[in-house]
Structure formats: structure tokens, C-alpha cells
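Methods, example record. To illustrate the input and output format used throughout this study, we show the complete record for Glyoxylase, beta-lactamase superfamily II. The sequence lines were provided to the predictor; the line carrying C-alpha cells was produced by it.
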Amino acid sequence: MTPEELHRAIERGDSVRLLDVRNREEYDSWHVSGDSVETSVVPYARFMTADVQGTVGTLASEHDLSETERTVVVCGRGEASDYVAELLRDEGFDAENLERGMRGWARVYVASELSAAADGTERSSVAHSPSGGATVLQYRRPSSGCLSYLVVSDGEAAVVDPLRAFADRYVEDARERGAELRYALDTHVHADHVSGVRDVADLTGADVVVPEGARERGLTYDGADEYDVRVVADGAEIRVGDATLTAVGAPGHTSEMTAYRLSDLLFSGDSLFVESVARPDLEAGDEGAPAAARRLHRTLTETYAAFDDEMTVAPGHYSDAADAAADGTYAATLGTLRGRLSALSMDEEAFVAHVLENMPPRPANYETLVAANLGREAVDDEEAFELELGPNNCAATA
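The corresponding predicted structure is encoded as:
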């Protein structure tokens, strides 16, 4: 089974039976999930032993695998799982291998148009569209929960928070819609994946757009002579065809975090998600986290207070627990989030305690990823892909 086929089955809500043959620690840190997914974790070594002892069928039955139910076997690269799937088939089980394993799963990238209201009601006219009539694609990477966006208007396009691994995808999608990709924007210096703004610019000549605070963190684009870098502050405007993206300073997750407003749509980056708020410790560590949390509280309760309940939040990440909207995207109105997230109504001290109390582990390799995104460390495509494998963990609460 290809990773894309597995993803489509999960999206449809099909019952999916997985057998993960990695170690429990590997599974716990990162795995395929979904409402319709049931997984048994049985390390590969146990199947090797069972093969020698002739007890593969017994081992499978002990973990509730059925001969009449299709089982998809998963490992890191699709090699150990291929061996186990063959053992199971020899015992009469309907078993398939997940092609390329979790690394193949990390290549799944899905795009959906933001065409519905966050409450699931279809927008009936441009006047009531949160994007003000521009076409907006939301890209999601199920393996990590990363979200990126393509904004298309009147023959021009901009991509927000692009991933390096999929730079050519944004270019192709813009061309399919008759648009020239003019801008590649980062909302902040990412700590969970390698930014694709340089790569998009290399492919298209698009201007790179970064928050001004990123320069203060040491961001450099040395050697980037083939494209322009535009540094924006709060209130700056980026024209994309007939649409306007307005920078909204939103510090907290990082000091330079900048959201972008498009009509009644807010690309919130890593400031506010549909199920949580941002973690504040990835720039200044544990020592600087309380001060960053206070800045984040001001962003959420003061800066975002200027937006009414109808503003639709399009975040930079989503988690397994997040519910998709009617159009399959992950977005919600501020009114919905104000009712859903208790953190948005807390006073400053309660908020700081809340976000610092139960943060999940930091993203894997986050220090190296930050260095790469600042331009301090060069990584090739394969190394970049390896560095960002795993969950993003950019939210304050799991």
C-alpha cells in the first residue's frame, strides 16, 4: 500500500488496521494516526523469533490480528515491515506493507481549498468569503501537522510558510491556476522543518518576505543574488494581484513571529492553533520562556482582540486531535476559538502557568533546524528531510 492510499483511506474514515513493528519508543514519539485507525505495536525482533519458532500466526493472533481483516504493516523505511507482511501472508493473513514506511508517510502532502466557513457552512458569495475573493489553498503534511498556504489573485500568487521538501509543488499549483508566484513568506524562524522560501525563490525569482525581527536573530541570505529579500514590520502590506496581505506583529512563540491578514482570514503562523496556543520556549529556552509567554498573552488578548469573532484563523500547524472543517481544512473562527480555548480568557499569570506546565518534548533536531533556517548551517535536501521527520510539537499543550 502506498502512503497516499493509506492517507485516502484514513480521510474517508475507513477502518484501518495497522501493525507497527518499530520499538515502542519510536512508535510513541511518531506514528500514523486517525479516528478510524487501530494499531498494534509488536517489535520486528519478536517476529524474527516467531519465524524461527514457527509461531508467527500465534503471535499475530495474540495481538488481535485477524485473517479476514486487512492489516497494513509499518516500520521506518518499509523494509522490516515488508518482511513481516510476507510472514503474515504465509500464515494466511491479509497483510500489506506500507511502501517506504514512515519516510514514505512523511512525503504525503495534501492540498484543499479554503472554501467553507469554519463552522462548516459553505460561503455563498465573494462578499462573505474570509479571503475576500482570493483563492487560498491549505497544504497539510499529515506526518507532522505542518500547514502552508498558497494565495492566488489576478494572475499572481504568494506562498506562506512553504516547506523546502515541497517547493516545486507550490510553483506547479500556482502555474496550474494561471498565476506567477511573486512572494514566498515566512511567519517566523521555524524550529520544526526546513523553510522553503529560498527554494521557491530559486525556482521562480519570487521575493522572499521575512519579519524584521528575524534579522535581529541573525537571519542571513548571503549568496542569494538571484532574488530579493523584503523585511516587513507590523502593518506592512504585500500586494498579490487584487489581494492585500497585511503583516500583524504577533510575538510570543518567537520574538519575530508575524501573522498575515487577508481580508477576514488570518494566517496565524505559530501563534494560535485550532486546538491550542503556541509554546514559548524554542527561541530563548526554559529561562526565557516566561517572558515569551507574557508576550504571547498580549498578542492573543490585545492584538487579536482587535479582530471580531468572524475572523477565520488559518494556523501553521494542526494536531491529531484537531477536527477538520467541512472542506477538509483546518481553520476556525476567532469566535469559535474564544469559546473553545480556555487559555484565551485567562489572565496573564494563569496563562503563563498554563502554557509552561505541560509542554510536550521540543521538536526533534530543533536547534539544527533553526540554524539551517537562519542560514548559519547548510544542509542538503536529504539531510533536511531526515532532520524534520517526526511530530512538530510547536503547541504549548499536546
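Annotations derived from this record:
The chain has two domains: 3-105, 110-387.
Residues 147 and 230 are 22 Å apart (CA to CA).
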